[in-house]
Amino acid sequence: MKNWRMKDIVVMAALAVVFGIVYLLFLPVNVVMMGLIGPIGTDIIFGVWFLVSIVAAYIIQKPGVALVSETIAGVVEVLIGSSVGPIVILSAVVQGLGAEAAFALTRYRSYHVLVLMGAGIGAAITSFIWGYFRGGFVALDPSYVVLMLVVRIISGAVISGLIGKAISEALAKTGTLTSFPLGKTYRQRKAG
Amino acid sequence: MHHINPSIKAGTVTIAAIVIAFLFDPLALLLYIGWTIAVTLLFGKVQIKKYLLYLLPFTLFAVGMLVSTLLFAKTPENPSITQQFLLWELPRETVQDALALAIRVFSYSTLSLLFVLTTDKVAFILSLIQQCRVSPKLAYGILAGYRFLPLLKDELTTIRSAHLIRGAKTKTSRFSRYKQYTIPLLASAIRKAERTAIAMESKGFTGERDRTFYRTYNTSWTDWIFAAVMLGAIALCIIVSKSFQ
After folding, report:
1. A85 with B13: Cβ contact below 8 A
2. Chain A hits for B13, Cβ within 8 Å
């Protein structure tokens, strides 16, 4: 965290604000999904809640970004008011840790699409363990719980991994990221 | 309530929520919900009307949880013991589990509202720096980012008008329409963030810890009493509920 520039932090916070709003907007969607097809409905769209980790880490490419950006998004959710209260910050930390672990495994050297999907999967797993206790999945059929986990992992890989990558690269194309690693690699690729 | 240190309040609420996660006794939870609501309304000076309005979405969420647990419950050990639930005959175990879960979701909501409705947002962040040793660089970064919130709405209107005036067609499919607005919105947010960061630094913000504060937050014995009472109430609810059974 020592080598973070002020710019990195404020950009992270700005991303967290935008995604914090997206997260809140998806809460009612979540209720609808759950009402329609049961608890697994949540898992289908769960990848949405890891997006900021992947986008911020891919753009800034520094250790700790995945964890901290997700945590800030949690704080922003609390600041906006509705949401699930300060507990959501803790959930965010748990998810952020999962995503961070994937980047840490590559020692923050690779931001290949597989690593991004791995970050989504990591967040899916940690968030599932946390949800198992918090949401009381014990009351559900064990085979159903396994199915929920599988669906959440896929959602983490596809929604946060692939869509997160797409969003970041679309941003790089606009030219706003020139002072960030992702913008630089994009420019090099274009030139070379 | 409004004068209790925000960090201690947040910590108390979070610890209470973690304890509740291991509590399956519906009666104890109901008692605690009653307690939390009473504390919020009496000591938080929150209007009942406003409180109910905030509670509405959470209620929907709890009901959704109830219905889905009833439908997807694990096979009960004694399916023969049934219980009348509204219109259906269901295994007693399933009904109890589902009710306990829904009540739990509801108790999280009341705890959250206790915090959200009685805490000033900026005070919360500033107290995080002063009590929880969060780095000022990070915390003021968050505050700066948080200030973009009202600006985003204006930005969206600007983007929409810009598209209109240049004759860009609004995409018909929902997905590409999202893309049409999200990317410019994010791009402008990042540009704004960069400018803000440069402005902060050029005005001498170093983010070091030995800074002074215009608004200082301290912890006093009332804060710790609040924490003790809120957490002690959980134990009390469990004891009361046990004595009823």
Report:
1. yes
2. 85-87
Task: Sort out which chain B residues have CB atoms less than 8 A from A56's CB and list them.
Answer: none
What are the structural domain ranges in chain A?
6-165
Q: ipTM of this predicted complex?
A: 0.86
Residues within 8 A of A (CB atoms), B 14-33 only: 14, 17, 21-22, 24
Do B135 and A72 form a contact (C-beta atoms < 8 A)?
no
CATH of A6-165, one of 1.10.287, 1.10.3470, 1.10.357, 1.10.1760: 1.10.1760
Is B64 in Cβ contact with A82 (below 8 Å)? Answer: no
The number of residues making up chain B comes to 245
Q: Looking at the predicted structure, is the pLDDT value of residue A54 above 60?
A: yes
pTM for the model stands at 0.83
* Cα angle value A12/A18/A23 (rounded, 5°): 110
Instruction: Confirm if A116 and A58 have CB atoms less than 8 A apart.
Output: yes
pLDDT tens digits along B79-104 = 666 666 665 666 777 777 778 778 88
| SS3 call for B89 | strand
pLDDT in tens, B98-139: 787 788 888 888 888 888 888 888 898 899 899 988 889 889
Residue A149's pLDDT band (boundaries 50, 70, 90)? very high
